[in-house]
């Protein structure tokens, strides 16, 4: 496949490197020090088995990347949904039939992408991995999952081209060592989007507020995790998303399997005073909910009061 990835940070870099290593043509839209590192050294990827370097094609715009690749089969938006930044880069300049996978940690931005690009070509993506950006184009995979699920938004009619590209991408990811579930049109990908939000938005926001990693949250603040997750569950149900009956318990059990020092990228960005995804993650859940979310509201307000 010929794959355009917008963003070569932790998510774009690691998953793009996996696809490149599996024999696919991958190009990155990047800038600044990351672009320079990709040109001079390539991607440097580390995991429990060691460190490897993967050659990378990169430039500053999607259309230029398509020219370098000689076409494009699918685009993956792997940037963060940060305030004041275009959430989808210049993906709208790609050929109008190009399927686009949105990987944002948000229950909201997939719909904005559908409005911008047309729902028939948009796939909502769900990434699960503890990734750390060590430097420009230098990424470490920490202990835990490595998966990438995606599917069309419910109630839409994806084009046959989009469905075919989705299955090709799923096979490519699996060949690169990534677990992948292609939801197709038969299942609701928003169940997975909201299930992940229950974990990542809650753990990220509570972790940032307490300035503590997962090991502390799941023991000393387990009651707060459960309360916030229960509110996310109610918010999803208010939107007609049929989360599994045991989703809160299952998510807490997933917390128990993570390594004790794990933190989310949102947590780390807030702690460092950097632009962050608080609004895209926790804010989006609050906006999308048709029921009250008092604990989520309080945590969001406290973090905003601290400058997040």
UniProtKB/TrEMBL annotation:
EC number(s) recorded for this UniProt protein: 1.1.1.169
Domain Ketopantoate reductase N-terminal: where? 3-154
- Which organism does this sequence originate in? Corynebacterium lizhenjunii
| Pathways per UniProt | Cofactor biosynthesis; (R)-pantothenate biosynthesis; (R)-pantoate from 3-methyl-2-oxobutanoate: step 2/2
What does this chain do?
Catalyzes the NADPH-dependent reduction of ketopantoate into pantoic acid.
* SUPFAM superfamilies named in the record: 6-phosphogluconate dehydrogenase C-terminal domain-like (SSF48179), NAD(P)-binding Rossmann-fold domains (SSF51735)
The UniProt entry's sequence similarity note says:
Belongs to the ketopantoate reductase family.
Do the record's keywords include NADP? yes
Q: What is the lineage of its organism?
A: Bacteria, Bacillati, Actinomycetota, Actinomycetes, Mycobacteriales
Q: Name one GO biological process term.
A: pantothenate biosynthetic process
Q: What is the name attached to this protein's record?
A: 2-dehydropantoate 2-reductase
Single GO MF descriptor? 2-dehydropantoate 2-reductase activity
Reactions it catalyzes: (R)-pantoate + NADP(+) = 2-dehydropantoate + NADPH + H(+)
Residues passing through the membrane, by range:
none
């Amino acid at each position: 496949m010929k794959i355009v990835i917008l963003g070569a940070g932790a998510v774009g870099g690691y998953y793009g490197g996996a696809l490149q290593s599996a024999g696919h043509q991958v190009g990155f839209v990047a800038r600044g020090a990351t672009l320079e590192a990709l040109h001079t050294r390539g991607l440097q990827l580390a995991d429990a088995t060691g460190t490897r370097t993967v050659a990378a094609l990169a430039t500053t715009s999607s259309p230029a990347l398509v020219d370098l690749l000689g076409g494009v089969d699918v685009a993956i938006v792997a940037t963060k949904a940060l305030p004041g930044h275009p959430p989808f880069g210049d993906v709208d300049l790609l050929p109008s039939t190009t399927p686009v996978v949105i990987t944002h940690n948000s229950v909201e931005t997939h719909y904005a992408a559908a409005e911008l690009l047309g729902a028939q070509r948009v796939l909502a993506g769900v990434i699960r991995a503890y990734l750390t950006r060590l430097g420009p184009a230098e990424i470490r995979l920490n202990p835990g999952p490595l998966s990438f699920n995606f599917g069309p938004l419910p109630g839409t009619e994806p084009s046959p081209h989009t469905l075919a590209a989705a299955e090709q991408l799923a096979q490519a990811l699996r060949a690169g060592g990534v677990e992948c579930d292609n939801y197709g049109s038969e299942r609701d990908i928003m169940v997975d989007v909201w299930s992940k939000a229950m974990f990542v938005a809650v753990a990220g926001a509570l972790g940032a507020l307490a300035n503590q990693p997962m090991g502390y949250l799941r023991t000393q603040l387990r009651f707060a995790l459960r309360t916030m997750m229960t509110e996310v569950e109610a918010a999803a149900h208010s939107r007609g998303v049929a989360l599994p009956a045991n989703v809160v318990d299952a998510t807490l059990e997933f917390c128990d399997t993570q390594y004790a020092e794990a933190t989310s990228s949102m947590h780390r960005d807030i702690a460092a005073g950097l632009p962050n995804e608080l609004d895209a993650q926790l804010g989006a859940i609050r906006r999308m909910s048709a029921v009250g979310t008092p604990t989520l509201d309080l945590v969001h307000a406290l973090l905003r009061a601290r400058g997040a």
